[in-house]
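Follow-up to my post from last week.
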Amino acid sequence: MNRPVLKPHNFDGKLIVVEGIDGSGKSTQINLLYKWLQNQGKSVHFSEWNSSALVRSTTKSGKKDKVFTPTTFSLLQATDFADRWENHILPMLKAGVIVLADRYAFTAFARDVARGVSPAWVRNLYSFAPLPDLVFYFQVPVSVATERILSGWTGRSNLKYYEAGMDLGLSDNRVTSFRLFQQRIINEYEQMVPEFGFTVIDGTLPVQDQQHQVRLIVKKALHGWKGLPTPAQLSRALARRAKTEQQTDPAREEKPA
Amino acid sequence: MKAKDGNLFYGSGFPYHHITSLPGKLIVLEGTDGVGRSTQIQLLRTWLETKGYAVSDTGLRRSALTQPGLDAAKSGHTLGRLTMSLFYATDFADRLENNIIPALKAGFYVLSDRYFYSTIARDVVRGADPVWAREMYSFALKPDIVLYLKADVHTLVSRLVHGRGFDYWDSGMDLHLAGNLYDSFQIYQARLIEQFDQMAEEDHFVTLDAARSINALQQDIRRQIQPLLDEDE
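User reply:
Got it. Predicted complex:
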């Protein structure tokens, strides 16, 4: 089967995605980007991986009982994504909103293949999703990511079973298993850089430097694009229009007070 | 199970498992709602067990992993079509890997009340891309035999009225084909049958007339399965 995976979209909105391994700093960067865009008065929607309420209880019980196989894990995450796609991302893109996604189909392409499913199979699962306008890939070596996560500054210092790839049986030690699993994921991501045209950001640079680069690129991508105005912008525009109509309408001016 | 065309699976299967042979048999009963699948499976099970075969049965939406979540999702109004397709595929994969394959490894006769064909029929009727759906199920095992119990919509209606009655999903009410369960059921089931007929041809189902008496149909089913038993002799 040689159908294109992820076709470009022509919705009014813009889709911007961040990708990278755990501890690559992508969530920090997308949060800063979100605030910056909001401050400029843009309509922005944020969507996070693995956050569908519909699928949550199933994911939770599967993780707790450790019953996931690479295939069921992959399918359930795709279900989660499909729910967010149908109920949030798609309508937002149609409305002309900037959708910022913390992880997208590429996370599945990297992780699920690292777990052992076929690359063509998982790409087909997500083929209903469009190619984003921008994909930022935060590149960091495993050692840096592991150190960040274990130091606890990301808000969690323990590695969870599936996060560490313990289901793969790579090592009985969680940290070792995490390292080996994340390295496999990095290898998949690296192959996707040319495949999907990722914009690579050096995730070892200071946070502000990375954000500066990200904003420049986003600014360029949004140049000349209007999108959906916010309610405040709309009412200001309406007020302006009413005012100009009043000024240019001679009938009104001649009217005696 | 015997590998047909050199492959036990429709496509890539489960690349992380190395399955080369499965001594059990996978027997699938397919068909729309009301054709009498569960009754026939019960009878078949008893017959096989009497003959000394170990039997395991399975059906759609019975996976311990997904059943509570799927039931909850179906009672709400936000379950989208893609989401439903993928959720059902998760359920199917869970049963295949955690129940069906282990049972086949142990030499069981697995009687499956429907298989992924039903799910694809439902998805395609709801507008899913058939190529996408088919590729999604490329991890599925090729059954030893698929018995397609076929009955016309009129027969289905009669059985439902004298059985459990019409239900929202079996009538395809989410498709808004008609304003009431009866009319919607007619249109929806006719479309499903169309999908089944097409798959029956492409995937070499054995089509059996399900409008007959329970006993006549059961005799026919046993006749169809006999060659599989002979292989084991």
